[in-house]
Predict the 3D structure of the following.
Amino acid sequence: AQSVTQLDSQVPVFEEAPVELRCNYSSSVSVYLFWYVQYPNQGLQLLLKYLSGSTLVKGINGFEAEFNKSQTSFHLRKPSVHISDTAEYFCAASGAGSYQLTFGKGTKLSVIP
Amino acid sequence: EPEVTQTPSHQVTQMGQEVILRCVPISNHLYFYWYRQILGQKVEFLVSFYNNEISEKSEIFDDQFSVERPDGSNFTLKIRSTKLEDSAMYFCASSSTGPSGANVLTFGAGSRLTVL
């Protein structure tokens, strides 16, 4: 079984500043990792995913994340945020052989003009 | 881009009433899911469905819940007798591969259920 921990429930950041949203996971099996974004009053949209291969994955809207197996982390980064990035971001994990996607509690990113 | 469509977007019901939430998954997807998100809490897995049967379910998915694929396009979640604690956003999702591969889910916009 997996568990996913997002250490920050809220992250305020000024426009054009960099941001990192933290995610740690625990899993006893090979794991696939995802970041989803939820804009206000909308559903969950896939931002990026790590399945295998290169540990640095790039997603939509300029976001990227790095899979770090030794630290069991999958932090999300963006070098310069925009107002439109204000949303809630969810880290999620699934294991080989499981139908289930396990989510973290989410991090609300607020971009300040 | 193909999307998962959910109806209704918001439903208000009285405690004890039956509710059916509907979903149209992406047409060539074979695996279907329901998740829920109680306000302020994590998104939680409810159930997965493949080949016309439940493939996995969580502890939350008790006897008051059921899922069905009544025709070739719709996937429904029924709650038989709603409770106050069923108030949540319910997300439908679908995927083309199951757990044998990297299971990338596409989610719908959600159906908000309010039980009074």
Notes: Chain B has a mean pLDDT of 92. Residues 13 and 26 of chain B are 28 Å apart (CA to CA). Chain B touches chain A at residues 6, 31, 33, 35, 41-45, 48, 50, 55-56, 58, 91, 98-100, 102-110 (CB under 8 Å). The radius of gyration of chain B is 13 Å.
